[in-house]
Amino acid sequence: MKMNLIILLLSLLSCSILSHLLANPNSIVDFNFPAVFNFGDSNSDTGEISAGLGVHLSLPYGCTYFHKSSSRTCDGRLVIDFLMDAMGLPFLNPYLNAIGAPSFRNGCNFAASGCTVLPATAQSNCPFSFGIQVSQFLQFKAEVLRLQSETKELDKYLPPEDYFNKGLYMFDIGQNDLRVDYDSMPLDQVLAFIQTILAEFEAGIKANRILVPQKLYEEGARNIWVHNTGPHGCLAQIIAKYGTDPSKHDEHGCLSSHNQAAKIFNLQLHERCKKLQSQYSEANITYTNIFAIKFDLIVNCSRYGFKQPIMACCGYGGPPLNNDIMCSQTKVLNGRSVTAKACSNSAEYVSWDGVHLTEAANRYISTQILSGKFSDPPFSSKMPSLLNLEF
Ligand SMILES: *[C@@H]1O[C@H](CO)[C@@H](O)[C@H](O)[C@H]1NC(C)=O
Ligand SMILES: *[C@@H]1O[C@H](CO)[C@@H](O)[C@H](O)[C@H]1NC(C)=O
């Protein structure tokens, strides 16, 4: 199942981090890749679901940076946009973008909002679940190589063959799988469910029974980054849906059961990443603790210049969640038609629409990722203490 892939990635990550640290304590990663191939959900969707399903995200989505709808579930840029920027590369084009001769020279983005690791069902918001995204990549690569063998005319739009080897493969998926009602689930069921997600993550391309990490490795992938999943129990929409009762909250107002599930998922993902690293010593597998970065931002938000850690900037209903109506949507409440609008100071909010973070939060998170301190193996020039690593 799809969970296998996540599990595999998790074990790859955790094994590799430790063995890297021990074998290579001064490892300095040059954050400079010629191309990025990205897989995930709305956290890194740069227009895939818009193109694929014909969904238009209207303003105020996009209001901060693009000043028009940018097909991102944010007021501005996503973490992936900041990371591309840090590498001096243009924003990543979505795989399904067909209009205006999009360039895939520096990579391709397969991430689609609402997507899960587990295969999509008729009820899913997104049909492009993880295994499909990986299949799309394999198709992408095969087509690129075929076109290049036929003509030189498309070279400026397509990555040269060696970019598939030198490029960065990024994964940020799992948050939508973990959106379930934990109150009705005993712990052993939660654990089994998480195992299933991770197994699917590893197995990925089900039709061919291919193990995703092995397949990508065989296809030449050598630089693999896995972002773990964030504290989704701190998202206003999750709190509104699964538990406004304060007895279910931790001292920061986040839903404990959901953050607990995220932590278990992350621990296992880390283990799987470490295991993968030990299996594929020629590859560099980096596991990044996004949970720790985001939780610190929420808990200590004022220290980083934010005022609202949980309440949505764009929404309706006011404190504590401002999430009675989803951003930009209109509903009739008490016989009156109301539209969920954006706050005037999104840079003071961590949460943009109750599910996705603001550009200001994404910018801060990107600086923390690039510090290397939250990654295993860490990639700063200094040797971080093993004790500081959060697993
Ligand atoms: C992996 O990282 C090490 C340094 O951390 C570097 O020397 C090596 O070239 C990298 N391997 C690949 C395949 O990029
Ligand atoms: C909040 O900041 C304090 C002081 O730096 C730190 O000790 C603590 O770990 C932070 N909280 C989180 C959740 O990271």
Mind sketching the topology for me?
Blueprint: H1 3-23, E1 36-40, H2 48-53, H3 79-86, E2 107-109, H4 130-150, H5 163-166, E3 168-172, H6 187-203, H7 212-218, E4 223-227, H8 236-242, H9 256-279, E5 284-288, H10 290-299, E6 330-333, E7 336-339, H11 359-370, E8 375-376
Parallel strand pairs: 1-2, 1-3, 3-4, 4-5
Antiparallel strand pairs: 5-8, 6-7
Helix pairs in contact: 1-6, 1-9, 3-11, 6-9, 10-11
The structure holds 2-acetamido-2-deoxy-beta-D-glucopyranose (2 copies).
State the gist of this model.
The protein is an alpha/beta fold and 391 residues long. It has helices at 3-23, 48-53, 79-86, 130-150, 163-166, 187-203, 212-218, 236-242, 256-279, 290-299, 359-370; strands at residues 36-40, 107-109, 168-172, 223-227, 284-288, 330-333, 336-339, 375-376. The chain is built from eleven helices and eight strands.
Task: Describe the protein's architecture and organization.
This protein is α/β, with parallel strands linked by helices and 391 residues long. It has 11 helices and 8 strands. The protein has one domain (3-300, 361-375): Rossmann fold. The protein has helices at residues 3-23, 48-53, 79-86, 130-150, 163-166, 187-203, 212-218, 236-242, 256-279, 290-299, 359-370; strands spanning 36-40, 107-109, 168-172, 223-227, 284-288, 330-333, 336-339, 375-376. The strands form 2 sheets. Strands 2-1-3-4-5-8 form a 6-stranded mixed sheet. A two-stranded antiparallel sheet has the order 6-7. A hairpin with a 2-residue loop joins strand 6 and strand 7. The radius of gyration is 20 Å and the shape is globular. The two termini are 25 Å apart. Bound molecules: 2-acetamido-2-deoxy-beta-D-glucopyranose (2 copies). One 2-acetamido-2-deoxy-beta-D-glucopyranose (NAG) binds next to helix 10.
